[in-house]
Each structure stands twice: as structure tokens, then as C-alpha cells.
Amino acid sequence: MDNRIHVTSPLVILHGDEMAQVAFEQILKKFVTARLHIQLEEIDLSAENRLLTNGQAVIDAIGALQRLGVGVKNAGMTVNRHQLDELLRKHPDVDAGDLHPLATKSPNGAIRKGISGNITREDIQFRNLKISRPDWIGRDIEVDTMEFGGIKESFNQLSQATGVVKLMFVGNSGDPVELHRRDVRKGDPWLLATNDMEDVKAWAHRFFQRAIDEKRDVYLGLKDTVIPGYDGAMRSVIEDIYHSDYSQQIKDLGLGYYYELIDAQAARIISSPPQRALWGVPDNTTGRKLFKLINQLRKVGIPSRSAHVSISRMSAGGGDQYGSFNMAAQEDGILKVIVDGEEQHARRVRSGDPMLFMSNDHEAIKDWVAQVFRDASRKDKEVYFGLKREYMEYDEVFSNVITEVRRELAREHTPPPSFMIMRPSSQLKKMITDPPRNALYPSQNLDGDIFSDISAALGGSLATASSIIESKDGTMLFEAPHG
Question: What is the rounded CA–CA span in Å between residue 7 and residue 203?
């Protein structure tokens, strides 16, 4: 006799990679198929199958979720350049030149954008586990970041028109070449950032020499998998300098060199800090946040982790860095942004300079903020936003939307939760060193990855990502933990 509960509606199952997939199959067997009589629509989202299907597996996953309305996704792997080369050697019939971006890039952003979903990451609390707090008081760890370039020196504004924004490049030929285009509406924020690769090289030399002079282990963190044309371009140049000029000296001194994705590395260093290290974070937006956090940790340490932490990340709009166009310049020239036929900004770049263009959607921002307030009200959470409104029009739109949503809630006689707006660096310090009892921290994509990984690694949570993706039409995707 079948004692399982019969479920009418099918469930989408998105399979992943490596040991996470081994655990995922056991979880499905123990908690789903052993208890429920349910039809499963299963899709292989492993890195290898995404490559072999040229990204069609990702498109199929989005279609299945839109059609069936609910799914569970396992952790997958986003390949870096080395891992991609290994897969291409394994499958010589695959033409690297014909690969769709979905074949090699992270499927997460595409799926979340495809179902117009925003992300909430919740702690999975284990009260029967004792977590040993790391001793941070006086810890000899320094963060080294670039002073100039990047988003810190970006051009950003709210679109003055509804239409098409084009990124144009004028090189030696004198003819304008269109690199990228996307639709924007009046009021949507957009941003162009570049970095001078000569400055990156100079920073790398200073960084490695400082580590040698001060005899510190070397840590380097970037997000080269998701932003390959920007962070990936910087990583390639920095590591070339390391291997050609400094690796032997560092090895002879008995020091170590460690590269990781910045979110995973931040979680590792904060939760299990080395005795003495120099932590290189070339991206100055992320680097300044981590520099301030480390300085605060050395003064006050880490409190007991009795607080409940939730992270909310917007995913349905332009995606910020994660939905960006990014590449290294192929030659010296002029980079221009054209909005609805009008030139809004131009700057010179040199061959090899990383370039990044990103935007967001005002209506999607509003949907996200409304979801943040609904979730916080339902779960009695305080809300802490992190925005740089004084310096960036890009962030100011979020502040304006917060006011819009609060007024709409008031008209509906729904009291919004208590909330505070602070700089992103203060938001991170608050979450780690002075957490309230029950709080929700809304953040943009890259910050959200870093913040949630740190919080999870410190305890009170099983994994780096236990996410609920909720779309406006009710589609739900539950992402299994990984880490």
C-alpha cells in the first residue's frame, strides 16, 4: 500500500554539481519521493550539461518554472577560465566560438531574472551545534584595495528618456562600433565604470611587495566567474604579475598565496581568520567595505550569534553587476554612452582596460522594496538598507522608491516595519558586529552574496545560500543550501 501523500501539481527539480548533487539526491529521496507521490520535472543544470546544451538547459529551467510555478534548485558551479578549458578539452566537438553566454555563465541570475524573482536568504538555525566565535580583537590582518577607478569613479545617472541605451566604442578606425544595447525607461538608473589596467598592474606590484616586506600570507579575492570581462580581466593581469615576479619570493619566505571568489573568501577569512595576512580586494567598492569591517572587528570582535539574519537581494531588474555588460577593451579608444540618440557620457580607455555597464529598472526596484517591507512586517523584522545616496544617483532612486512604497502602505493602513538607511559599509558592520535580534538586510547583488556568505559562515546557519526566490506572479523557487 502506498502511504505517500498524493500531490496533483508537478515539482520542478533543477540538478547541480559535485558533492552538492550527491547530497541533493539523498535529500530528494528521503524528504520528497519517500513521502510524496508527486510528478517531478527534472532538468540537469550541471556545468557540463549547460555547456553541452549550449545553454538550452537554462532556458528549459526558466520555462518549466514559469509553467509549473514552483521548483527546487540544487547548488551548481559557475566555471572559471581554467575549468572551462578543462571541459572543452573533455568535449573537443564543442566549438568555444559558438557558445551562448548561458552555456558558461552562472545560471542563477538568468533564472531569477527569467521568473522576475527577488531573493531572500534565511538562516537555517541549528541550536544543537555550539559555534566557537573567532577571536578578532587585535588580529593582524590588513585589507589592501585600489584607491581609484571602478564604481568609485563611475559615471551614473537616472535615464532622462525612455528608449535604447547604447554603449559605443570609437577606436583607431574612427568608426563607432556598438558594443552593447539595452532598453531603459525614464527614471531607470544606469552606470558606466572602467579601470585603468596600468593602475591595476601598479597596484598588484605594490600589493605583492608589501606582503613580502611585511611577511604576510597573501589573499586575493574577485568575482571573476560572474563578471569575467571586468573582475576576470583584473585577475588575469594580477596573477600574471604574481607568477612572473613574486611567487618564488613568497614561497621562499614560507608564505602562502590564496585566490578565491570574493564572497567565499570573505566568509572564510571572517569566520576563520588567519593569524597574519594581507587581503587584496582590487575592486574598491567591495574593498572599502571589507577594510572598514576588518578595522571594526579588530576593535570590538564578533558578538554571540543569537541574532536572526535575513538578506534580501533584488534580482528581477537589470541585475546591477550581475546583469552587467563587461569586457576588456580591445584597443585604445573612446567609450560613449548614448541614451535615446543623445550622448550622455564619454571617456577614454586603453587596450586591456576592463569596462562595465549596468542598469536597473525602477518598477522592479519598487516591487523588490515592497516585497522587503511585506516580508519584514510578516516576520517582525527590522530593516537596514545600505545605500550611498550622497554620491550616486544610481542609489538615490532606491531611496526615492522606499518613500513611495511607505506612502502606499500608509494609504492602505498597513504600517511599514521599522527601517534605517545607512551606507553599505555601515550596513555590513551592523550585521556582523552589532546585530539586532531579528533583522532583514536588503542589498544589491554582489553585496548580497558577500554579506550572506559571511553571516552564514559565522554560525546560526547551515550554509552560504538557503534562498527563496519569489516572483510577482507567485512563482517560487527554493534554492538548496551550499557551502
Answer: 58
**Among all chains, which residue has been given the C-alpha cell 510555478?**
69
Beta carbons of 136 and 301 less than 8 angstroms apart: yes
Question: How many angstroms separate the CA atoms of 82 and 95, rounded?
Answer: 16
The reported pLDDT for the residue numbered 118 is 82
User: Which of 96, 78, 112 is CA-nearest to residue 226?
Assistant: 78
How many domains does the structure of the chain reveal? 1
> 363: Cβ–Cβ under 8 A, 6 or more apart, which residues?
185
Q: Which three cell numbers stand for residue 451?
A: 554579506
Query: Grid coordinates standing for 134?
Result: 573567532
- CA–CA separation, 453 and 459 (whole Å): 10
Domain contains 125? no
Nearest-angstrom CA–CA distance, 259 and 427: 26
pTM exceeds 0.90 for this model: no
Q: Which domain holds residue 87?
A: 1-119+468-483
Task: Label residue 462 by pLDDT band (50, 70, 90).
Answer: very low
Report in angstroms the alpha-carbon separations of 411 from 248, 383, 407, 415, 454: 66, 20, 6, 9, 38
pLDDT digits (tens, 9 = 90+) for 254-276: 999 999 999 999 999 999 999 99
**Single-letter amino acid code for the residue at 426:** S
400's grid cell: 526615492
Residue type, 125: Q
**Residue 127 lies inside a defined structural domain of this protein:** no
**How confident is the model over 416-449, as pLDDT tens digits?**
889 999 999 999 999 999 988 889 999 887 888 8
Phi, psi of 175, deg, nearest 5: -95, 130
Q: How many alpha carbons lie under 13 Å from residue 438 in its C-beta half-sphere?
A: 10
- pLDDT classification of 132: cutoffs 50, 70, 90: confident
Residue at 280 is within a domain: no
How far is residue 351 from each of residues 14, 197, 456, measured CA to CA in Å?
40, 8, 40
**Looking at the predicted structure, is the pLDDT value of residue 320 above 50?**
yes
Residue 317 has pLDDT above 60, yes or no: no
Question: Is the separation of the CB atoms in 180 and 243 below 8 Å?
Answer: no
DSSP E strand boundaries for 216-359? 217-222, 257-261, 276-280, 308-313, 325-328, 333-339, 342-349, 354-359
Helix, strand, coil % in the chain, rounded to nearest 5: 40, 25, 35
Look at residue 392 and tell me if it is in a domain: no
Longest pairwise C-alpha distance within the chain: 77
- Residue 125 pLDDT grade (very low, low, confident, very high; cuts 50, 70, 90): low
